[in-house]
From TrEMBL:
Class of this enzyme: transferase
Annotated PROSITE patterns: HIS_KIN
EC number, as in UniProt: 2.7.13.3
Protein known as: histidine kinase
Subcellular location field: Membrane
A Pfam cross-reference name: HisKA
Keyword Electron transport: no
Record SUPFAM superfamilies: ATPase domain of HSP90 chaperone/DNA topoisomerase II/histidine kinase, Homodimeric domain of signal transducing histidine kinase
Keywords: Kinase, Membrane, Phosphoprotein, Transferase, Transmembrane, Transmembrane helix, Two-component regulatory system
Length: 451
C-alpha cells in the first residue's frame, strides 16, 4: 500500500504542480516580454516627444537658432547629447564634421531615422522660416540604451513574483491535497480486522466517488471474509464429532486384550493421525472463534496468573520431551482485554516454542512490565527460522519445510489474531545463542491502561 500511495502522490501532486507552475512560468515569461516591448516603445515615444519639445523651444525666435558649427559643452557622456542643427533651405547638404552627420536640405518636417557614416540618428525636423529649418538629432544607440534600461526595470516585478507564485502554488496544492493523503493513510492502516467504511463527511467532492467505491470494496471483502470464517468454523464443528467418535472407537479397539500384536502395530499410526487431526480441529475452531466474533468490551484481568496457569497446561508436553521449561515473572500486571484472547495467545506461543524445540532443549518464558507496556517473551533453543520466511510464519497453515514437526501451522496465526484483538503487537526474531546454535525469541507487547 505504501508503494501505491507514493505513486498517487507522484502522479497527482507532481502533475498538478508541474502543469500549474509551468503555466505560470510560460504566461509570466510572455507577460514579461510583452511588458518589456511596451515599455521599450513607450520610452522611445517619450524620447521623440522630447525632440519635438526641444525643436519648439529653440525655434521660437530666429535669434535662438543654434548653428551647426556651435561647439557644445563637454560632458561625461557625449553619446547621450541632443544636437540642434540649423539646416539652410538654400544650398547643398549640411555636414557636421564633429558628429560625422550629413543632412540633406530637403528633409520634410517630422521624425526621421537617418543613417550616416555607419551611425544611426533620430531626427525631428521643423521649418522655422523660408530661410532655414532646425533638426534636433540624437544617436539611435543612445536612445535605445535609455529605452532598454527603462524597459528592463519593468521586468523586476515579474522576476520576483513568478518564482514566489510558483512556490506558493506548490505549497497550496500540497496543502489542499492533504485530504487525499489522509484517506490513503486511513486505508493503509486497515487490515482484515478493521474493514469499517471510510467516513465521507469531510471528504472533498472530487474524491468522494473514489471513497464510495473503496467503501463498497471494503464491504465486499468483509462479506467474503465472514463467509470464509463461517465456513471454517462450520467445517471444524462438523469434523469435531466424527474425529472424537473415531478416537473413542480406536481406543476401545486398542483396549481389547485379544487383539493380535500385529493389528495393534498397524493401528498405532492411525491413533497418532487422529490425535493430530483432533488438535487441528480444535485449533481451527479456536481461530474461527477469534476471527469471527466481535471484540467484547475490555475487561481487567490478571496477566501474571494467566501466564502461570498456561505454563502449567503446557508443562506435560515439555516434560515428555525433556525440555527445561522456565518461567520468570515480576510484579502483578493488570491487563485490559479479553481473557480468552490473552490465554489463547500465551498458550499457543509457549506451546509452539516447546513443539519446535528439540528434546533436551530449553524454553524460557518471561512476563514483566516495561514502562507502560506489558511484555511477554518466549525464548527457545529451536532450529530458528530462515530470515525470508519470518514474516510468513504468522499466516494460517504456513509451515517451514523440513522442520520435522507435526504442527498444523495455525498456532502463530491464532497468536496474531488474538494480539490484534487485544491491541498489542507480536514479533519473532532469530536468537543467536552461540556459534552454530540458533533459537527463536517471541515477543508480545501490549500497552497498559488502555481505554
Amino acid at each position: 500500500m505504501d508503494d501505491s500511495k507514493g505513486t498517487v502522490n507522484r502522479s497527482l501532486l507532481w502533475l498538478l504542480s508541474v502543469s500549474i507552475c509551468g503555466t505560470i512560468l510560460v504566461v509570466g515569461i510572455l507577460g514579461a516580454l510583452t511588458s518589456f516591448w511596451f515599455a521599450f516603445e513607450e520610452a522611445r515615444d517619450l524620447q521623440d516627444d522630447e525632440l519635438r519639445e526641444i525643436a519648439q523651444l529653440v525655434s521660437l525666435d530666429e535669434k535662438n537658432a543654434i548653428s551647426s558649427e556651435a561647439h557644445p559643452p563637454v560632458d561625461d557622456e557625449p553619446e547621450m547629447r541632443v544636437w540642434v542643427i540649423r539646416i539652410p533651405k538654400a544650398g547643398g547638404n549640411v555636414s557636421t564634421p564633429d558628429l560625422s552627420l550629413t543632412l540633406t536640405p530637403n528633409l520634410s518636417d517630422g521624425l526621421h531615422t537617418v543613417g550616416s557614416k555607419g551611425e544611426s540618428w533620430r531626427l525631428y525636423v521643423r521649418t522655422v522660416n523660408a530661410g532655414y529649418g532646425l533638426a534636433v538629432a540624437q544617436r539611435t544607440s543612445a536612445r535605445d540604451e535609455i529605452a532598454r534600461d527603462s524597459a528592463l526595470r519593468t521586468l523586476t516585478p515579474f522576476l520576483l513574483v513568478i518564482p514566489i507564485l510558483m512556490v506558493l502554488v506548490a505549497l497550496l496544492i500540497r496543502f489542499l491535497l492533504r485530504k487525499v493523503n489522509e484517506v490513503s493513510e486511513e486505508v493503509d492502516r486497515k487490515d482484515d480486522t478493521d474493514l469499517t467504511p471510510i467516513l465521507p463527511d469531510s471528504v472533498p467532492a472530487e474524491i468522494l466517488p473514489f471513497v464510495t467505491a473503496t467503501n463498497k470494496l471494503l464491504g465486499r471483502v468483509k462479506s467474503s471474509l465472514q463467509h470464509q470464517r463461517q465456513f471454517v468454523a462450520d467445517a471444524a464443528h462438523e469434523l469435531r464429532s466424527p474425529v472424537t467418535a473415531m478416537t473413542l472407537q480406536l481406543e476401545n479397539a486398542m483396549a481389547v486384550e485379544t487383539m493380535p500384536e500385529a493389528v495393534g502395530c498397524r493401528l498405532a499410526p492411525l491413533g497418532t493421525s487422529l490425535v493430530r487431526m483432533r488438535a487441528l480441529v480444535e485449533q481451527l475452531m479456536m481461530l474461527a472463534k477469534l476471527e469471527a466474533s466481535t471484540p467484547a468490551s475490555p475487561q481487567k484481568m490478571d496477566g501474571k496468573s494467566i501466564v502461570v496457569e498456561t505454563l502449567g497446561e503446557v508443562f506435560p508436553l515439555a516434560d515428555s520431551k525433556s525440555i527445561d521449561l522456565g518461567l520468570v515473572v515480576g510484579e502483578d500486571i493488570v491487563l485490559r482485554g479479553s481473557e480468552h484472547d490473552f490465554r489463547a495467545l500465551a498458550r499457543n506461543a509457549i506451546e509452539n516454542a516447546v513443539l519446535y524445540t528439540p528434546s533436551g532443549g530449553k524454553v524460557d518464558v518471561r512476563f514483566y512490565r516495561d514502562a507502560d507496556m506489558a511484555v511477554l517473551e518466549v525464548e527457545d533453543t529451536g532450529p530458528g527460522i530462515p530470515e525470508d520466511q519470518i514474516s510468513r510464519v504468522f499466516d494460517p497453515f504456513y509451515r517451514i519445510a523440513g522442520s520435522g514437526q507435526v504442527g498444523s501451522g495455525l498456532g502463530l496465526a491464532i497468536v496474531r489474531s488474538a494480539a490484534d484483538r487485544l491491541g498489542g503487537r507480536v514479533s519473532l526474531l532469530n536468537n543467536h545463542i552461540s556459534p552454530g546454535k540458533m533459537g527463536i525469541r517471541f515477543k508480545y507487547i501490549q500497552p497498559l491502561h488502555q481505554h
